[in-house]
Design goal:
alpha+beta; 7-stranded mixed sheet
């Protein structure tokens, strides 16, 4: 739903749970990207307070900020969202038109997510271009580049060879021909199942290409395990990365997966935070889709796709809403917020106030 519809519904949802007008401290765990500014403005407009900053680059939740957030309000709201750009002109996810660049260029969005994906996408491109399929005398054959056969590598895309080529009783692949840079194997029954609709070419090898199914490989990567550190986002994604790189829109799939992992992680830290005891809390996760601004638009037409929510009352009773239940809860609320503030009027009032001089 559009943020202009989501935010009043979200505010009204908080009110319906007993959150007190004027005593709600909202917080956002967004990426630092300027495309996230419009949602922040709407949070301030509807909740009457500029939101506390709970976010790190990529939409990671800074869990060490729970206690400060708890001290800033009576009732507490947290919105966590990874984000992905969308260009409606060409139907592409993962890009966003930057109005402030010299030629209003399109760049990656989210840049952190797209930057993290680059290495994995290159590894996948090498694998899909260096595994070949062909048929010889009615037998289906697979040619695999020698690099992809080195299972002892510390980093890289590693094949689940027993699902691709025939192996012996110990699970070792059985090469039939050794070439200068590759080896030839008979295709495994599992691979034949994955490629049941593929027409094998007689005596003509062609790359496996995007037919390299995510169940046929995995990644190894030296990633620091420091929570909320530089590699935290990669750590969130590495287990599902084969599905990310083979999806139609890797940036979208990665942002979605990161949101899901972050909700699960942050939810558990909220439960364990003493400062959140005896507090009303509404924590929601979702995906911000930044639709590139067109000519004459200052901000993106950001949309929000809800994922899940955690609700806690002041007595410690709590529950989790899954996606459909959360969506229905939001849809049941009015898109009109009688408590919203007029930002221009609020700024004008401040400008007219008598100046307070500092004592130095």
């Amino acid at each position: 739903m559009r943020y202009s519809r989501f935010m009043p519904r979200f505010y009204n949802l908080a009110k319906s749970l007993g959150f007190e007008r004027g005593k709600i401290m909202p917080s956002r765990a967004f990426c630092s990207d300027e495309s996230q500014g419009y949602p922040i403005i709407l949070i301030a407009k509807h909740f009457g307070s500029f939101p506390f900053n709970h976010g790190l680059v990529g939409g990671i939740v800074a869990t060490d900020r729970h206690a400060p957030h708890a001290h800033h309000g009576k009732d507490l709201v947290i919105i966590q969202a990874s984000h992905v750009g969308y260009d409606p002109e060409n139907g592409r996810f993962g890009v966003y038109r930057r109005l402030q660049t010299e030629k209003t260029s399109e760049t990656s969005n989210c840049g952190k997510i797209c930057g993290a994906l680059d290495w994995y996408l290159r590894e996948y491109a090498f694998a899909r271009d260096n595994i070949f399929l062909y048929q010889e005398n009615g037998k289906n054959k697979v040619i695999v580049d020698n690099l992809l056969l080195h299972a002892e590598r510390n980093e890289g895309l590693l094949l689940k060879l027993d699902r691709i080529v025939k192996v012996d009783a110990q699970g070792n692949p059985i090469p039939e021909i050794s070439k200068s840079t590759a080896k030839v194997f008979s295709a495994s029954p599992a691979l034949l199942d994955y490629l049941e609709d593929y027409e094998w070419k007689q005596d003509r090898a062609e790359p496996i290409g995007r037919r390299l199914h995510p169940d046929l490989f995995f990644y190894k990567r030296e990633i620091s395990h420091h929570s909320e550190g530089r590699d935290h986002l990669e750590q969130n994604l590495i287990d599902v990365m084969p599905y990310v790189v083979t999806s139609q829109w890797p940036a979208l799939t990665a942002a979605q997966a990161n949101t899901q992992v972050e909700f699960d992680r942050a939810f558990r830290t909220i439960l364990q935070e003493p400062a959140y005891s005896n507090k009303k809390i509404l924590f929601i996760s979702g995906l911000n889709v930044d639709i590139s601004p067109q000519e004459g638009q200052v901000f993106p037409l950001t949309k929000f796709i809800p994922w899940a929510a955690y609700v806690q009352d002041e007595h410690g009773n709590h529950q989790t809403w899954e996606q459909m239940e959360l969506y229905e809860q939001l849809q049941a609320q009015s898109p009109e917020n009688p408590d919203q503030i007029d930002l221009e009027t609020a700024i004008e009032i401040m400008e007219k106030e008598k100046e307070i001089r500092l004592p130095f």
